[in-house]
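Researcher: I'm preparing a figure for a lab meeting and need a structural model of a single chain. I don't have an experimental structure, so a prediction will have to do for now. The sequence is pasted below. Please return the structure as tokens so I can convert it later.
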Amino acid sequence: MQEGGVVSQYQTEIPEPRVERLEFRIRVGRCRRCRRRVQGRHPRQTSDALGSAASQLGPRALALATQLNKGLGLPYGKTAAVLEEAFGLRASRGGLCQAVARVAHKGEPTYQALIEQIRGSPSVTPDETGWRVGGQLWWMWAFSTSQVTVYAIQPGRGFEQAAMVLGADFAGFLVRDGWSVYRQFLQALHQTCLAHLLRRCREMILVAGKREAVFPRTIQAILQAALRLRDRHEKGQMSDRGLAVARGRLEARLDRGLQPHYCSPRNRRLANHLLRERDALFTFLNCPGLEATNWRAEQAIRPMVVTRKVWGGNRTSKGAHAQGVLVSILQTCRLQLRSASSLLQTLVCSPHPKVLDITAPIR
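Model: Understood. Here is the structure written out token by token.
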């Protein structure tokens, strides 16, 4: 055989992991004046516990466990299995549950700061889905902007629960689906989701007879025309005045379509819904840049739906609150293109809960 030269091949591999076991020599004493007990703390410590609770998980292990359980939806048992298989780190399910709860406690001020940012945002997109807490039906709420997402697991699906996050006096734009609770935010400017209405029209057309399908086809054409107007204006193909004139014609066309008497119960229900949502259908044409669908909140809800299907929900209301705190921080980090791991490590190494500004510019 004649040698023809040397070529290269590349392989990306994970280095063999090893678990670090650190011992902290902590100085303990008492104040000479008040006799209060004091002890030192190393920056890498995640807890001040001593005695029988002196063995703790480190910040990197806690951050990874939190991301596996809350970010990726792995149950505590599988999270413990990943840590042991990949790193040789043994931890019980109960120990991980308590550790993640401590991370949520440290993240509480940051969570409250995210809620304040949601309340002060010019535009918010909410959505909700079913959840289980202790086997009972609760609701997972999501409130999203382009910069922040806040989750809250609440025992109800009413205005009171939505206002606990959004604030009853929210006065920005509310881009939402047709759930009647959102209309109770009287100071907000509303935009109903056109994607929901178009989906409803398509489903009605599939099962309707020839005459019955006329009304949903008419509504479908009007909504699609509104979206085309928006696209033409954004591309510079239509002036502001031209958009206003076309919007007025479209609204008049919708009003004419809602006037006839409908014999079909399905058409009558759709017409009644459109009459209730009449003032919120074309807000996005009055305010260029406003979204016409609630896709942002639906994208935020989707991973929560996957998590619910994997392990059902939470066993206690305390665990549900911890779930909301941590997934809010993790999702906001994703929106900000930040490392959630480094932020979680900063949280758990802090002696006391504190606010971390996730939305601050990255240096």
